[in-house]
Amino acid sequence: MSEASYRGSCQCQAVVFDATLDLDHTITCNCSRCQRLGSVLSFAPADKFHLQKGADALTEYRFNTKKIGHQFCKICGIEPFAYGETPDGAPTVAVNVNCLDGVDPRALKSAHYDGRSR
Ligand SMILES: [Zn+2]
Q1: What keywords sit in the KW lines (predicted)?
Q2: CA of 59 to the centre of ligand 1 (A)
Q3: What gap in Å lies between CA 31 and CA 12, rounded to an integer?
Q4: Fewer CB under 10 Å: which end of the chain, C or N?
Q5: CATH classification at residue 42
Q6: Which domain holds residue 48?
Q7: pLDDT score at 116
Q8: C-alpha 68 – ligand 1 centre gap (Å)
Q9: Residue 19 C-alpha to ligand 1 middle, in angstroms?
């Protein structure tokens, strides 16, 4: 498989986005946040992510190293994506695959990331 375009949203649809993603490369993570959320993540360069609506509905949360800006809807509480950077400093978006239309995240073979030990 290769890249395809997906639409995603929070639960209440206040936040809607589209992104070009390669769902052959997703991760799950056991850090203190991802484990609680059950996040399945796919990473895209910032220019392949477009927030269609909901900038005013989002609020940001940062923890630990504070490098990742977790975005969640202040109406329904869902975190559809997070802003971050690649190790070489390029802006990237971590999309929560659970929020994409027409995708079964449990059917993906996600790599496991040991965020708890970092
Ligand atoms: Zn919402």
Answers
A1: Metal-binding, Zinc
A2: 11
A3: 26
A4: N
A5: 2.170.150.70
A6: 4-117
A7: 82
A8: 20
A9: 18
